[in-house]
Design a protein that fits this description.
alpha/beta, Beta-carbonic Anhydrase, Chain A, 5-stranded mixed beta sheet, 8 helices, about 15% strand
Length: about 210
């Protein structure tokens, strides 16, 4: 292992951070992942510090493991996950922490096709029946995206997911003054990305900030 392997992440711009993620995803799609920063030396290097270059706010779906699909390792990404990438106070606080304390230059809202949380919300909107327990809370958060999609003539689940990702990026910047200020000052960008399960491809569908 070379000394460069355990050096701190360089300070990246939002555009450079997105390019790094995009390059990692391309390797994953091609089946040529590098699996970087996953050895014992890297683990020891990060014991008392971290400097991730991106925060990924993604769906909790088991098929959407951010570090794998973007070919990342230990210390590369700060990851926050909820079903349907629903914004609650804990998720918002985690995202604000990544910007204020870790100075992460890029927030990625990551959705995917065949999303169960979006599908459940569509079913509830169509039937008028809410699911039990705290699943209802997820559906209530996603319902505005489904209604907006319907108003725009969108009926299928996967295109509704794109709408929900776009709506989530907008709500994130709108709800957090800390994040919106970082975007306005060029320190951070917020982008929406959708992932296709069969192909493994991640594509940007929305964004706030300079890229």
């Amino acid at each position: 292992m070379t000394e460069a392997t355990v050096q701190e992440q360089p300070n990246l711009t939002p555009a450079q951070a997105w390019r790094k993620l995009r390059d990692g995803n391309s390797r994953f799609v091609e089946g040529s992942s590098d699996h970087p920063n996953q050895d014992a030396l890297r683990r020891q290097f990060l014991v008392d510090k971290q400097h991730p270059f991106a925060v990924i706010f993604g769906c909790s779906d088991s098929r959407l493991a951010a570090e794998i699909i973007f070919d990342l390792g230990l210390g590369d990404a700060f990851v926050v996950r909820t079903a349907g990438h629903v914004i609650d106070s804990a998720a918002l606080g985690s995202l604000e922490y990544s910007v204020a304390m870790l100075h992460v230059p890029l927030i990625v809202v990551l959705g995917h096709d065949s999303c169960g949380a979006v599908t459940a919300t569509i079913d509830s909107v169509e039937s008028g029946i809410m699911p039990p327990g705290f699943i209802r809370d997820l559906v209530e958060h996603i319902t505005p995206s489904v209604i907006t999609a319907r108003r725009n003539g969108i009926q299928d689940v996967n295109t509704t997911v794109v709408e929900h990702v776009q709506q989530t990026t907008h709500r994130l910047v709108e709800q957090s003054r800390l994040i919106s200020t970082a975007v306005e000052e060029g320190r951070t960008a917020v982008i929406g990305v959708t992932y296709r399960l069969a192909e493994g491809k991640a594509e940007m569908v929305s964004g706030f900030g300079a890229l």
